[in-house]
Amino acid sequence: MGTTGTVREGRGPVRYGPLAPDMGLPALPELVTELSGAAGETSPEEPGGGPVLREAACGYWSRRGLPTHPQEVAAAAGAQPLLLALLAAHGGDVLMPRPHPASWAPQARLLGRPFFPVPTPAECGGVPDLYALLETVRRVRAEGGHPRLLLLSIADDPTGTVAPPELLREACEAAVAEGLHIISDETWRDTLHRPHETVPLSPAEMWPDDVTVFSDLAGALTPASWPAAVARFPATGVGARRRARTLDHLTALGAFVAAPVAAAAARALDEPPGVTARVAAAAALHARVAGAVHHIVLTAGALARPPRAGRHLYADFGPLRRGLAARGVGDSMELEEFLGARLGIPVPGGHRFGDELGALRVRLATGPLLGATPEQRMESLTDVEPLELPHVAEALSILTAALGEPP
């Protein structure tokens, strides 16, 4: 609990909200060298990123079937200021799936922008259910609102799922037909647990004039302590004007990418062999650990969709409500504190992600289970059987005990 004078703040303020799931691994030496080599630079990048960084982003997206030119790219010092600038540049009411990343709703609130959560389909998170989306648009307009933006994720935080192409296509087609512009958060697209079985589809491939792509490089490429994020705008006159407004907002925020971070980010976006090997190895490691956590959650009697991407999964303890109530746990805030105290790591409740307070849901991250020291985490990354390492096995055992305690 934080205090100011004699006033108890509790954990409601935004600053107590969860960060995105951390990679839990030391920075790649190749990128550290790149950052260190630019440490003597005293000026930040220009608003929206310098030419080297933007060219690297173009190459990154082009390799994923999204041809891009530097004048269609904007970079910023972190995901939050870039998303804030994007929302400010587009205007109108915002629709987003529920649950959604913890940072989305505060951005809309900060702008005084009405936002409306839309339930997701049973199969995945990240995208709105088709019929719920259409009904929400109808209701908002009937109440005098102006829905103009849909935020979605093709690979999702907090659920760790990947939207099936047909569900993504249905939702995007309906959104475009209703005149909504789509901001596609593709932060987690390079963290797929089974990359040869799961094909991530960007809405920008299908509706290039109606989709802005947004990515936090901390998803797969760079440490979270090196804040950098990039956006890709449609190659249209409207897209160019929105990019210009976005740059104005980034300038007002002072959200310029630091020169050393820009150098490392550009190197990561170029995807040399060392970077791609680390990305693949990290995704495989987190897939193994997430699979073990998923098994523990189900064995305890809770529910969770199988994780398909990222470093997290979303567990629903609704089936254990009666036993948890006997322990004084009746909502996600109390569940967050209950599990956090037992595990000794943050376990953010579903209310952080726009879910109903009464729903007993939490996000479980895999990063904290990889070890307590850089040496242990690197051992987890390189060992052929990471789940059998003593420090990983102990962390999973603690989780099993915490979730498996009799009610």
TrEMBL record:
The keyword Protease applies. The keyword Transferase applies. Its cofactor is pyridoxal 5'-phosphate. Keywords: Aminopeptidase, Aminotransferase, Hydrolase, Protease, Pyridoxal phosphate, Transferase. One of its GO terms (molecular function) is aminopeptidase activity. Residues 49-201 form the Aminotransferase class I/classII large domain. Residues 1-21 are annotated as: Disordered. Transmembrane segments: none annotated. It comes from the Bacteria. Pfam families: Aminotran_1_2 (PF00155). InterPro entries: Aminotransferase_I/II_large, AspAT/PAT-like, PyrdxlP-dep_Trfase, PyrdxlP-dep_Trfase_major. Belongs to the class-I pyridoxal-phosphate-dependent aminotransferase family. This is Aminopeptidase. It comes from Streptomyces camponoticapitis. The lineage of its organism: Bacteria, Bacillati, Actinomycetota, Actinomycetes, Kitasatosporales.
